[in-house]
Amino acid sequence: xxxxxxxxxxxxxxxxxxxxxxxxxxxxxxxxxxxxxxxxxxxxxxxxxxxxxxxxxxxxxxxxxxxxxxxxxxxxxxxxxxxxxxxxxxxxxxxxxxxxxxxxxxxxxxxxxxxxxxxxxx
Length: 122
Description:
By secondary structure, the chain is mainly alpha-helical.
């Protein structure tokens, strides 16, 4: 999976750090096991959507912070760095008793999930 995605249209190497999911990081954490990579990515798709719904419904900043912490850890596990940074920002806002905006997190999750869906279709 990693090599196939790291090649762009003209055959050159693509910088894995620029993709919504760092596939080199993912491969390292799954020891190159493609089936495990796919399962972890599927789990992230499901969990990220569930967490976003919980965050939208959260009435207390504590719950918002807990959900942000959850998605931050999951995102770091697969190398979805933009998602992790947006979640960390929300987590810090919640720790300070403020409700941060979900816009950046939703955008980052949408980008990562679109990328993941494309990978899983191949």
